[in-house]
Amino acid sequence: MERQSKSDLRINGLGSSSGGTFNYVQINGKGEISGDLNCSELQINGLGSVDGNVKATSVRIAGKSDIGGDLTGERIVIDGLVEIRGKVSAEHLENRGALRISGDCGAESFKSTGGFTIGGLLNSEKIEIEVYASCTAREIGGESVDVRRGRGFGIKDFIDSILPGLTWKKGLSVETIEGDNIFIEDTTAKVVRGSDVRVGTGCSVESVEYKNTFVAAPDAIVKRNRKI
Q1: Are 39 and 145 members of one domain?
Q2: Which end of the chain is more exposed for a tag (fewer CB within 10 A), N or C?
Q3: What span, in angstroms and rounded, lies between the C-alpha atoms of 132 and 130?
Q4: CB 180 within 8 A of CB 143
């Protein structure tokens, strides 16, 4: 993108704008953008909404945001409560907040220490999930799938500290996981299929299918397993 040929868009406080092509887009406060948005960098702090598709090189969202269409970016960082009503395509996606995607999510690398709901397929070469909150997807596929129990102070601990007594299920729920190297903890799944599969503590899996190796923790529930 030729940065010098595009203007910046900044909304500070309360404001709105039509969509278009920009260099740098920043919302501080409460801002609404109508239409598709194409920019080099998008930063939202506070309440921000885009009624359309978003395409940006870099995206960082902190606060509460709603994107009415698809989100496409090279690097996407989520630090707040974000709902995307379409699909997501990224090179690198990091979720440290609460992310809801209606469609599929595709990325070269996907890392999450927050909660997420993905209505379709989560597909990435490298998937790293630390489970501190409720995480759900219809399907997960990748070369490397690593799901670990959160062992530090995470988003659930923060929510518990400000809203004690709130019921929030912690764990990953998914219908199918497929990959080459799979390690999972705190996961509920119907089918886990891969070359090398390790099912760790806190898991409940109906069926494991593996090519090379399969190992299960003593407390893991695996109803069926077979070598394929």
Answers
A1: no
A2: C
A3: 6
A4: yes
CA 159 to chain centre: 18
* Alpha-carbon gap, residue 121 to 89, rounded angstroms: 12
Q: Does 96 reside within a domain?
A: no
Judge whether 39 and 56 are in contact, CB under 8 Å: yes
- Please report where in the chains the tokens 């599969």 appear, as a residue: 197
**Distance in angstroms (rounded) separating the CA atoms of residues 41 and 206:** 43
| DSSP code, position 165 | T
Start-end of H helices in 92-174: 155-162
Nearest-angstrom CA–CA distance, 54 and 133:
27
Q: Which amino acid is residue 81, in one-letter code?
A: L
CB atoms within 10 A of CB 2: 7
pTM for the whole structure: 0.90
CB 161 within 8 A of CB 196: no
Number of domains in the chain: 2
Please give the Cα distance from 52 to 37 (Å, whole number). 7
